[in-house]
Amino acid sequence: MTSSEPPVLPTLLMFRVRELRFHAELRERYHVLDFFTSGEPLHGFLAAAAADPDPPRALVTAGGDSVSVDAAFLDAVPSLRFVFSTGAGLDHIDLDECARRGVAVANSGTVYSTDVADHAVGMLVDVLRRVSAAERFVRRGLWPLQGDYPLGTKLGGKRVGIIGLGNIGSLMAKRLEAFGCVIHYNSRKPKESVSYRYFTTVHDLASESDVLVVACVLSKETHHVVNRDVLDALGKDGIVINIGRGLNIDEAELVSALAEGRIAGAGLDVFEKEPKVPAELFSMDNVVLTHHCAAFTKESRSDLRDATIGNLEAFFSGKPLLTPVLPR
Amino acid sequence: MMASRGEPPATKVVLLLVPHKDASFHAALRERFRVLDFFASSERSQLPAFLGAAAAAPEPPRAAIVVGAGLIPVDAAFLDAVPSLRCVMCLAAGVDFIDLDECARRGVVVANSGSVFSADVADHAVGLLIDVLRRVSAAERFVRRGLWPVQGGHPLGSKIGGRRVGIIGLGNIGSQIAKRLQALGCIVCYNSRTPKDSVPYRYFTNVHDLAVESDVLVVACALNKATRHIVGKDVLEALGKDGVVVNIGRGANVDQAELVRALKEGRIAGAGLDVFENEPGAPGELFCMDNVVMTPHVAVFTAESMSDLRDHVVANLEAFFSGQPLLTPVLPHSPVN
């Protein structure tokens, strides 16, 4: 054995990791089978991976609708024992199937939580205080011509109803309390050791909130959790903020509620069919629209690389995962 | 003194020298005082004539409601024109257009908006900070132009937590900004005329040193001789190319020409501005910049603050007319915000 022989790198399946530096760091450590550059359709790519002399035991995926890690997927690559999701969400992974097969799952943990919470707070201030709309007013040169600008709404004393009081929801709550907001929440179960008022249903939460924040995961239970009934309960002075998943809200109902003035405004980072945004929203000054960027800062990118590699190294060396989702 | 039902006593005469469009504000004043409204009068372009007529009336005004944007300086000439004035009620925190020494010399008491607006201004300042760092308005433009499906990506913003934020002026507004920033995980430092007891933030004796150790500089101080252009070329250089300026004080607190140059040349990273040197209007060179957020001097304007202001003005004027001390008096050299 000469000392210049390269070490055998474990095989890693990769989906949707496009950031160049991240790519490079993974390639330094692993024998990467990248779906995006393979040019193959999914079944061909997975078959080839399974037939690799060292078939992949780990998968890194960013999620989204390009690939679902479901029974068919797991059947196609039986060597898989570990799935790492770089996204905050896990709705693209069939956790029950993975659990059944003893496939471990980890995600980015709390890497994104603070950034998402900050972005949500930023959007909330923006909607209530009309920051981006006022920006447009200035940039169009309207200030010297039209002078006055419509009044915003004070944050202090506003009741913010958070759907999902996980990491992100809790961080938002702490920030909004500093602005003088009153925090209400709904969650699968009430959380001990929080003093915020708990509501057993989203409808009841909405009827006692001025701002409704979607900060929950997307699951069967939370699909369209904000629907017509909830929007009606929120009422015409109410605002919706969504930093969960587009499908948490019945988007068509939201758009018509906004168009008809049945709610007062919205801050949306996610949509049902990204990157498509309902065109009706583009003419509205009482909505703030961002391109699913709440999690993404320069710093979180770097934290994510560390979390991904940290979990992969732990898996490949038989140590406990850093941020496991499964086993629970 | 008994007043006939519905008519305020004739001695409560107030000059209204602000272009205020809020009907409920006018109504609240007229319920209690006899209001001489300059901007609604037939002499609206001739202030001297208006003041002369008011001063010559059998019941001349004892109080005046003013604001900087009314563009009527309260100086010796103004006070000479209406010698009956004993009280000046300013609708804003900023009293830079009022000669406080002259008023004190003549025994004219001055009140301002106190802390009526402080929370709203603090909220807006923090909103601007988050917007600049996280590029919220820039992302908004990206989406509204339909670029998301076309271009996919867009430059990333920067994390807020861990940023060192230097606040210039730790009055009501500065303190409330600090509280919100702490909840966001920022490290707060400040400069003020004198250090404040019992605040947990690091104090710097001058703005240059504050800027050296800050990632974001927030202007939250009054405008006076000492603070004019307090953020100038030297401070901007000390802040550095990754630094951000947020201004919710007065446009003249910042050397605007230097700021624009620094932004154009990439010598600072961005700015969030609610105030400018020649309002209304912002420098056109900023309109193409994605790292700048500009709002048209709206930090105080919420529906709730306008209603609070109305109550506050009425309370101060009632106190004055009944010989009580003002609720929010301003003395020369006292903090205003």
Tell me, briefly, the overall form of chain B. Answer: globular
Number of strands of chain B: 12
Which sequence of SSEs, written as H and E, runs from N to C of chain A?
EHEHHEHEHEHHHEHEEHEHEHEEHE
How much strand content do the residues of chain A show? 15-25%
The total strand number of chain A stands at 13
Gap from first CA to last CA of chain A? 42 Å
What topology, given as strand order, has the largest sheet of chain B? 8-7-6-9-10-11-12
Catalogue the unreliable spans of chain B.
none
Query: Which class of secondary structure composition applies to the elements of chain B?
Result: alpha/beta
N- and C-termini, Cα separation of chain B:
36 Å
Report the β-strand fraction of chain B as a percent range: 5-15%
Q: Greatest contact pair? A: A-B, 53 and 53 residues
Instruction: Based on Cα principal axes, name the global outline of chain A.
Output: elongated
Kindly summarize this structure in a few lines.
By secondary structure, chain A is of the alpha/beta class.
Overview of this structure, please?
Chain A is of the alpha/beta class. Chain A has helices at residues 20-29, 35-38, 42-50, 71-76, 95-101, 113-129, 131-139, 142-146, 167-178, 202-207, 228-234, 251-259, 298-316; strands at 11-15, 31-34, 58-61, 82-85, 104-107, 159-163, 182-186, 197-198, 211-214, 239-242, 265-268, 287-289, 324-326. Chain A is built from 13 helices and 13 strands. In chain A, strand 9, helix 11 (228-234) and strand 10 form a beta-alpha-beta unit. In chain A, helix 6 packs across helix 9 (167-178). Chain B is α/β, with parallel strands linked by helices and 337 residues long. In chain B, the strands form two sheets. Chain B has a seven-stranded parallel beta sheet. The two termini of chain B are 36 Å apart. The interface between A and B is large, with 53 and 53 residues.
